[in-house]
Structures are given as C-alpha cells and as structure tokens.
Amino acid sequence: MTEATTGTVYLVGSGPGDPELLTVKARRLLEEADLVMHDRLPGKEIIELVPADSRVDVGKRAHGDRTPQAEINRRLVEQAQEGKTVVRLKGGDPTVFARGGEEMTHLADHDVPFEVVPGVTSATGGPAVAGIPLTHREFASSVTIVTGHEDPTKGESAIDWECLADTGGTIVVLMGVTRLPEYTATLVEAGMDPETPVALVERASWTDQQVATGTLETIVEACESVGIEPPAVTVIGEVAGVREDVLAWLEGYE
Ligand code: SAH
C-alpha cells in the first residue's frame, strides 16, 4: 500500500459573522473539505454550512479550558498526513489575533502544504458595518490594532498606551470589553482628550449587532446601559464620532 499524499491545510477566515461576508473561496472550502476544525467565533450560521460529519469544534471548553494550541497543531498535521483536505476556520481573519502564525510555522515545520484564505477582520469590518470609517481625510491618517486583553495598569502590558495616546490616529481594540475601564482611563492619563469619541460594536454584522457610543469619559457607562458584551470591537478616535452624522441615514435603511 502506498502512503497517502499529505493533504493541504487551509487557514480560513470566516469574516465577522454574517455568512454573506464569507469569501467565495471560504464558502467553497467549507463545503468541500474533508474536515473543518473551528472555534466558536465564526458563529452557528457559518459553522452549519459545513456538513455535520466533517466538522469538529476545537474551541470547546473541557473543564473550562480550550483545546490547547499544541493539541490543535498536532491534529492539523495528523489529519493532513492522512491525506485529508483540512480547513482550520477562524473568526475574522486568520492572521489577526488568531494564532494563525503559530499554526503556519508548525505546518511548515512538518512539511504540510498550507494556504491562507484571508477573511474580513472584525477590526475593520466591525466598525465598517456600523458606519464607522477607520481613516478619514480630516480626522485620522493611521490605525493601530491592539489587544485589550492585558491589564494596562499592571505595568506588564506589551502595549505602550502612552505612545498610542500620542499617535493622533484611530485605535482599534479587540478583546477589549472587560478592560475597557482600565484602558480608557490609561489613555486619558496619558494625555488624550477625555472628549475623544469612542464606540463599541458588539457582534458586528450579526442580526443582533449592538453599538454603544460615547467618549473616553462616558463610554463605560454607555456600554453598561446598552449591555455590551464580548465579542465587541472598540474604536477610539475622532472617526468614532462620524457615526453620529451618518446614523440617521443608516437607520433609514435598517
Ligand atoms: N481573528 C479575529 C479576531 C480574533 S480575537 C478577527 O480578525 O476578527 C477575538 C476578538 O475579535 C473579540 O474579542 C472581538 O474583539 C473581535 N470580534 C470578532 N468577531 C467580532 C464581531 N462579529 N463583532 C465584534 N467584534 C468581534
């Protein structure tokens, strides 16, 4: 018996959640792959596009834990070596806060052919569907995407919030619901105008999308009253105020 030819692993981005924001290629691969390894972020509607017998949830928490990354890496290689076409499906884009880099390195180290299929990241797509541009000729010429996962007050954060406060550009925070009070306060302490507009878009592009708007000073309260919960993307900067101007128009079409 000849050994199976190693299959290809596709690292696929699902976009922010609306199935119509999947790329044509992602959609085809979801339907054709022998195995789709996904986490929860892509959402039920997208995951259900995959035949039930070819999907496996690797985001499932056993005893409160996610499947360890090393275990996912090992399974990707194992399945490909059995000759399968494998899709590793991630929310948004597979290269933005999604450990796609580690998976690529691991696959390369094991001589497994792979391809990255980019998706619409929530970092840009999330604000976009809520009517928030990330750059604007008048207000912002740069965008920085950061994780809000780390505590900015602990002094061990890999993010230089003081420096960010100085860029004058837009700041986008992913995984930034829990620590919203800390990093907004840190930015104000670092010299940012407390009146700087801020918006959070929860479950962007889903039918139950929610948006909270305010300023660095008021956004925590605004989020509480709207009931914002993860997953949500935070936009900090003058561009977050543009939404107010287009809101009437947006609502007219909703
Ligand atoms: N790879 C993903 C990001 C994964 S990190 C991407 O490119 O979008 C997980 C974070 O992404 C969440 O905490 C949240 O900040 C953001 N996120 C993902 N999907 C989202 C959505 N539909 N609406 C708002 N934020 C989302």
How does this model look, in words?
With 254 residues, the protein is of the alpha/beta class. It has two domains: 9-120, Cobalt-precorrin-4 Transmethylase, domain 1; 123-252, Tetrapyrrole methylase, C-terminal domain (Methyltransferase, Cobalt-precorrin-4 Transmethylase, Domain 2, 2-Layer Sandwich). It has nine helices and ten strands. Strands 3-2-4-1-5 form a five-stranded parallel sheet, sandwiched between helices. Strand 8 and strand 9 form a beta hairpin. The site of S-adenosyl-L-homocysteine (SAH) has 25 residues, from helix 5, strand 8 and strand 10.
User: How do the SSEs run, as a string of H and E?
Assistant: EHEHEHEHEHEHEHEEHEH
CATH superfamily of the largest domain: Tetrapyrrole methylase, C-terminal domain
CATH topology of the largest domain: Methyltransferase, Cobalt-precorrin-4 Transmethylase, Domain 2
| Biggest beta sheet summary | 5 strands, parallel
Write the layout of secondary structure elements.
Layout: E1 9-13, H1 24-32, E2 35-38, H2 44-47, E3 55-57, H3 69-81, E4 86-90, H4 100-109, E5 114-117, H5 122-129, E6 143-147, H6 161-165, E7 170-174, H7 180-189, E8 197-202, E9 210-215, H8 219-226, E10 232-236, H9 239-253
Parallel strand pairs: 1-4, 1-5, 2-3, 2-4, 6-7
Antiparallel strand pairs: 7-10, 8-9, 8-10
Helix pairs in contact: 3-4
Residues 16-17, 41, 90-93, 96-98, 121-123, 126, 174-175, 201-205, 230-233 line the site of S-adenosyl-L-homocysteine (SAH).
Protein traits:
single chain; 254 residues; alpha/beta; Cobalt-precorrin-4 Transmethylase, domain 1; Methyltransferase, Cobalt-precorrin-4 Transmethylase, Domain 2; 2 domains; 5-stranded mixed β-sheet; binds S-adenosyl-L-homocysteine
